[in-house]
Design goal:
- With 366 residues, the chain is α/β, with parallel strands linked by helices.
- Helix content is 41%, strand content 13%.
- The radius of gyration is 19 Å and the shape is globular.
- The structure holds iron/sulfur cluster (SF4) (2 copies).
- One iron/sulfur cluster (SF4) binds next to loops.
Length: 366
């Protein structure tokens, strides 16, 4: 892990010993979204869903109290580009924290806003790495229908092409394997990779969260499709035909290997959930909701740590509080486990058992 703004020794001590400051946070900038995907976990019918977003001024205060180890923030939502102040929010993170990268998940429906953001932020901070994860889950007509936006597929491709031209920006298309696309996954992949020449493709597996529950009878088919897709991406990336990361760099090789390890963990546990290794949610990784609620992860909805508004926006105090120590103890004692990729990434990074494989990849030994 290479750090520019954070002190490397402090970060390593935090990752491997104390684990009391986040190195990555997911910040839900808003719950608003112009799409209405059938598998979305947001309850758009609940009037409280859109209430109480943290203002820019509140986010500014929050960013000053995020600790000294934060390397990455993931902007998500809702649709993060529905938040008009997203450029100013990114600048607050750049000015006030130790981040070196911003990862943004978008439905890809707003190519001009995304391009403006990418150009302005890479101009503002020439060292920041931006990754835009654009969700595409199906062939054009079906994708537009499932997400309920006309012409969305074409807008996603336009967004991808625009980002690819900007220095220090990475665009990646992410396919979420769900009960709706699992029967057609090979055609979808070919349409993206072969016909639309998309070379950066990742995939995730749909998870039960909020108001979405996976139909039980579809789980085996979803897993088969996920297995097919991950094998395909793995083989093509080893041949250099999929380039999700720059494997000429140490970090690129580590990230690629981390994906391979986490896909295997998901395959091992999706149908038969079981504990594999300690989850560092609540330590190295955490969640800030649009209204300022703080959670260790997206799944443990009954484990809210508190709200930054009630804690003088001092996130790190909340993170080091007795109530979070109890939550981390709960996660450890219950051998908490799930298939949530964001948390898996930091669990792999923070667990000794994976370091051997990561190091082998770092030095091109596998
Ligand atoms: S694009 Fe994302 S946030 Fe918007 S409805 Fe779909 S799943 Fe939900
Ligand atoms: S294992 Fe999953 S549910 Fe449990 S704390 Fe980690 S991310 Fe949350």
């Amino acid at each position: 892990m290479i750090t520019k703004k954070a002190n490397l020794l402090n970060v390593l001590k935090n990752i491997y010993i104390s684990r009391e400051e986040p190195i990555s946070l997911v910040h839900f900038l808003t719950n608003r979204c112009n799409a209405r995907c059938s598998f979305c976990f947001i309850d758009f019918d609940d009037e409280n869903t859109f209430k109480g977003e943290l203002s820019l001024e509140e986010i500014e205060k929050l960013t000053k109290k995020l600790g000294n180890s934060l390397l990455n923030v993931n902007f998500t939502g809702g649709e993060p580009f529905a938040r008009k102040e997203i450029i100013d929010i990114a600048k607050k993170y750049i000015d006030n924290t130790t981040i070196q990268s911003i990862y943004i998940t978008t439905n890809g429906s707003l190519p001009d806003r995304v391009e403006k953001f990418a150009k302005e932020i890479t101009e503002y901070d020439k060292e920041i790495e931006l990754t835009f994860q654009i969700s595409i889950d199906d062939l054009p007509e079906a994708h537009n229908k499932v997400r309920k936006i006309n012409n969305l597929f074409d807008q996603c491709i336009e967004t991808y092409e625009k980002i690819k031209k900007i220095k220090n920006c990475n665009a990646v298309v992410s396919i979420t394997v769900t009960h709706e696309n699992c029967d057609n996954i090979e055609n979808i992949f070919n349409h993206l990779h072969v016909e639309n020449k998309i070379n950066n493709i990742k995939c995730t597996i749909v998870r039960d969260e909020g108001v979405y529950k996976t139909p039980m009878e579809k789980k085996k088919k979803i897993l088969d499709a996920f297995t097919f897709l991950t094998n395909k991406i793995k083989n093509l990336s080893k041949e250099g035909n999929i380039t999700n990361y720059n494997t000429n760099t140490l970090q690129g090789r580590l990230h690629r290997k981390k994906d391979f390890i986490s896909w295997n963990m998901i395959k091992e546990t999706y149908l038969d959930p079981k504990y594999i290794s300690l989850c560092h949610a609540g330590g190295l990784f955490g969640i800030i909701k649009a209204n300022g609620d703080v959670y260790p992860c997206e799944i443990l909805e009954d484990k809210k740590l508190g709200n930054v508004r009630n804690n003088q926006y001092n996130f790190i105090n909340l993170w080091k509080s007795t109530s979070n120590k109890k939550i981390k103890k709960f996660i450890k004692d219950t051998k908490c486990n799930c298939s949530y990729e964001c948390a898996l990434s930091y669990n792999i990074l923070g667990n000794y058992r994976y370091q051997h494989n990561l190091l082998k990849s770092a030095f091109n030994l596998d």
